[in-house]
Prior knowledge:
By secondary structure, the chain is mainly alpha-helical. The chain is 55% helix and 0% strand. Helix 2 (25-41) runs antiparallel to helix 3 and helix 3 (46-61) runs antiparallel to helix 10 (164-173).
Amino acid sequence: MFKKTPESLRLTLRALARLVGYPDAELRAQLPALVDAVRLEQALPAARVAEIEVLCAQIAALDAFEAEARYVDTFDRGRQTSLHLFEHVHGDSRERGPALIDLMQTYEKAGLQFDAPELPDHLSVVLEFASTQPPAVAREFLGEMAHILNALFTALSGRGNGYASVIAAVLEVAGQRVQAVALAPEPALDDAWAEPEAFDGCATKGQNRPGQPQPVHFVRNAHASNHQGASV
């Protein structure tokens, strides 16, 4: 038996977008309404809705400081659980910039003007955009990010974090399979932020020892460019 595709995903997607947002006082006050919105459209399995309800109850039971601290600890302390989706693919490389521009153009082509404090690849922004589209378009759009969402789901579920249920819900709304995937090893936070040793050689990553090959980088001279004409 096949389940009928919901005629609308707008409320569900907007509720999920809010649930991955920063749990300030306004969001915590909205938690009961968000659960009601997810129930109303019946776009998710009952078991998933129950998991989301448990997560909302857990967030509501925490005091403001602890709820916000747990959110930061979950999403802002490592690439594997980042809500900036392109960070999972491009990290801090140059490719992320063009990818963000392409995503902005997708929003603009749909007749929407981006105006948010988050970057355009933040999951809350992605879901809010999807909520403005017809169900078939929204599902296709989110489906293109299924590999990233499954990686995020894997990282969260591996830590026993209740936010995994929200990511699983996004995949289910998109008509995608929720599954664990292999994750690339991630350096410890202390290692990622460690300062290199002084006077010990230079490299693009950390420090090379004296006597080891050193990379050389060429950068355009901005002053010279002004005399040669701009290039695109």
